[in-house]
Amino acid sequence: MFKLYNRLKIIYQLQLIDDQLDELEELRGDLPKTVKVLEDKINSLKEDIANMEKEQKESLKKRNRNELEVEKLSENQKKFKSQLYQVRNNKEYDALTKEIDHTEDQIKKLTAENDSLADLSKSLTVQIEDIKPSLDELKQELKENKADLKEIVKANEKEEAKLRSNRKKIESEVKKPDISAYMRIRKAKKGKAVATIKRSACSGCHNVVPSQRQLEIRQNNKLYLCEYCGRILVSNEIAESAKE
Ligand SMILES: [Zn+2]
Question: Which of 36, 25, 23, 27 is nearest to 145 (CA)?
Answer without folding.
Answer: 36
